[in-house]
Amino acid sequence: MRVFRKTLDRVESVPKRRKLPKIEVKIDPDDLAIPKEDHRAIKKTKKKTTRKTKTKKARKPRKSAANQDDNDIPSQPPANFWPMYNLIKKMRAKVKAPVDKIGCDHISTAVSGLKEGPVWRFQVLISLMLSAQTKDEVNYQAMKKLQDYFISHGYKNGLSMEAILDTDQAKLDELIYKVGFHHRKANFIKRTAEMLKEKYDGEIPKDVKKIMEFPGVGPKMGYLFLQIAWGICSGIGVDTHMARMAGWYHWVPKWQKGKPEPEYVRKCFEKMLADHKEEWSVINPTLVGFGQTICLPIAPRCDICTISRTGLCPAVDKALLRRVEINRRSGVKSPQKKSRGDISGLLPNE
């Protein structure tokens, strides 16, 4: 209370400010007026102000497979290619991947039992068209659904060119709705069947350029079709798994952003393996199966990969290896992850 009273006394002791008298100043308006001539002079002498605009630097166009110069494509594989590739082939012999059982070279026979003939070749082409941006397991389900539907509607061989021509596009879209981009693929398949009947009398040609004229068919599908259906190996089929791993392993020159394009990787592989054409038909299922089971796009299984401790792979998950080693020393079992295939041949014996 004493402190409060002291502060109150101080406030009351402060003298009040006196109000100052108002002073009126009279100004003649004519004294402030500016002649018209002076106005013109001021406008003339006024400087023009211009905004400084920053000039944006033109972006360099990203290199694509179409504008890649032949000099950018290596003629020899890098030093780590053959050691890594040979080890991958040894691991693949111990692993069963989806591509080994229901890949595009097996799927048509698996659903229809056919192994040759125009209908079988048509089924191979359709399975390749459905496989884009789609897992082998989903592709198999779509092919099986098409085969069962057409068999139940009186078509002896099931999925065939005649069956596709007689089916409405909306119904076809409904049958393949599980695959990626099913709307576009339904349209592509209908148009392909029409082109096949009009231009080639129902038989798919043996020329990759003619095969790539079908809507939705690119180099990967074209070269793989020739290998599977006609036994012609004129190029390497490269998919996203192969392009991703080629970038990770530094098997192709460094890309500007992201993973290299499959078409660019195809050109690199064909030039690097020009003297080893026996690998052209082998490298696709080898790397695709490895990418499906071991070298996954997310959380790769470096813990069971035999390359991870050799120093050959630049993409090793070292943190994972350290965790596995700590668990081993502590006697703790590392958690087992689900796999799309059978990888028991690479798992350590307990």
Automatic annotation (TrEMBL):
Region (Disordered): 1-20, 34-77, 331-350
Catalytic activity: 2'-deoxyribonucleotide-(2'-deoxyribose 5'-phosphate)-2'-deoxyribonucleotide-DNA = a 3'-end 2'-deoxyribonucleotide-(2,3-dehydro-2,3-deoxyribose 5'-phosphate)-DNA + a 5'-end 5'-phospho-2'-deoxyribonucleoside-DNA + H(+)
Family annotation (SMART domains): ENDO3c
The EC number(s) this enzyme carries: 3.2.2.-, 4.2.99.18
Keywords carried by this UniProt record: 4Fe-4S, DNA damage, DNA repair, Glycosidase, Hydrolase, Iron, Iron-sulfur, Lyase, Metal-binding, Mitochondrion, Nucleus
UniProt family annotation: Belongs to the Nth/MutY family.
Protein's name in the database: Endonuclease III homolog
Native source species: Dekkera bruxellensis
Gene name per UniProt: NTG1
